[in-house]
Amino acid sequence: MAKKNKKNARSASRSKHGSNGGSAQQATSLTRFRAERAVDSIAHDFITWFEADFGPAEEALDCLNVSKALITAYFEATATGVATAFKPDALAAVALQLVDVGGEEEVAEVLDMFHLYVDFLHDTGRWTGTEEEYDGVHSILTRGGADDPGATINVPALSKQEELALFRALPLIQRARALLTWIGEGRPVTGTGVLRLKDIEAAAACVGVAAKGVRKRNVDELAEGTVLVQSMRQVEVLHHIWATLVETEMIDVLSTKGVPFEGRVPFLDGSADEQLEECRFFVSEFLRLGVLGGDPDEQWAGESAGLTLGILLAGAAGNPTQVERFLISPAHAPEGEELMVQLLARLVHSRLTRWAGLGIVDLDTHFRVPPVVIACVAMAFEDKFNLQVVYPPDYEHELVVLPVG
């Protein structure tokens, strides 16, 4: 495996002189201390190694400072306190989270500098992970480089008939279509653009949930298996599907009513090509909103989004994350952080389990992405995160050309 390009490494180091690693340093002082102590223990040898091939000691120190910050973020997001081995999928999730906060160019420079740290570990025999893990980390850190494009999502070749049949079989599509059918010519909405309390029960039934809207939660009213809610937003699947219908312009929320967009619903009654395009768009937006559309102020929103996205991308690229390894991660968390890691793992696992029930994730021994959903994962995130995606030669991105004006 080729080492990091020296010219690019020095350029990145100079552009980040004195950097503190940006958003990666939003970690607890305990975790930061662990990362700094681990890196400081090998700092002298790293500087000697760096000076031999890459540049002066001050640039080596910049690389170490950035590496400390990134390793701190990695410790925060995973269940390890080891700074001499990194799991590719977890590192990718941390990198993608940083992109969302700091921008692609800044994060690319950070990864360039961290790449030197990883190569140092490998070259000097300090790397404690497997060779496969090193190759995976190397691919992530060289993503976008001319000599190594990184992990690639290969969209499977499906005929349009096969693809549409697979979409129609997804519970997510079936429930979205059922909700659209129930909406019909329109349903009243509140001033905040959600369904009224009295309509929640029928709408929730369309998406496979037993829920009832009430003004006050009264245990006596609770039927077996029915959830009492005071807003449509509390029925997570219903709210997510409703938001996706709005985002994809399948419905339009007016001041008092939710209605079919421009009076037509090709998702239900369009041609085969129209329905296929609508299915692709809907699933892509459902994934995008599910990962990136949360409240940024919510506790651990960034960490859970990053982990979820990393698992989706790994599954779409044919390198699925092992469920067992993910679930036992709290047992290996740094001292004092076990509860946080446990809650975060439960949050992400719960989300992916819910999505498995909708057919957009296969959940067995690994978190896998069904073939028909792989293109949707790519469409949802390839532009924002500059993903490497290979589509079949005859893949039609736009099946229906809409009239202008």
Architecture overview:
- This protein has 17 helices and 10 strands.
- It is mainly α and 405 residues long.
- The protein folds into 3 domains: 6-150, no CATH class; 160-264, no CATH class; 274-390, no CATH class.
- A 3-stranded antiparallel β-sheet has the order 2-6-5. The protein has a 3-stranded antiparallel β-sheet with strand order 7-9-8.
- The longest helix is centred in the N-terminal third of the chain and has 21 residues, at 57-77.
- The radius of gyration is 24 Å and the shape is elongated.
- The termini are far apart.
Rounded to an integer in angstroms, the radius of gyration calculated over CA atoms is 24 Å
Please state how the strands of the largest beta sheet are arranged side by side. 2-6-5
Number of domains: 3
Unreliable stretches, pLDDT < 50, 5 or more residues?
1-28, 143-150, 401-405
Ordered list of secondary-structure elements with their pairings:
Blueprint: H1 6-15, H2 29-40, H3 43-53, H4 57-77, H5 88-102, H6 104-123, H7 131-141, E1 152-154, H8 160-169, H9 171-183, E2 187-188, H10 197-206, E3 211-213, E4 227-229, H11 236-247, E5 251-253, E6 257-260, H12 266-269, H13 272-292, H14 301-316, E7 321-322, H15 323-327, H16 338-357, E8 362-363, E9 366-368, H17 371-385, E10 388-390
Parallel strand pairs: 1-10, 3-4
Antiparallel strand pairs: 2-6, 5-6, 7-9, 8-9
Helix pairs in contact: 1-6, 2-4, 3-4, 4-6, 5-6, 5-7, 5-14, 6-7, 8-13, 9-10, 11-13, 13-17, 14-16, 14-17
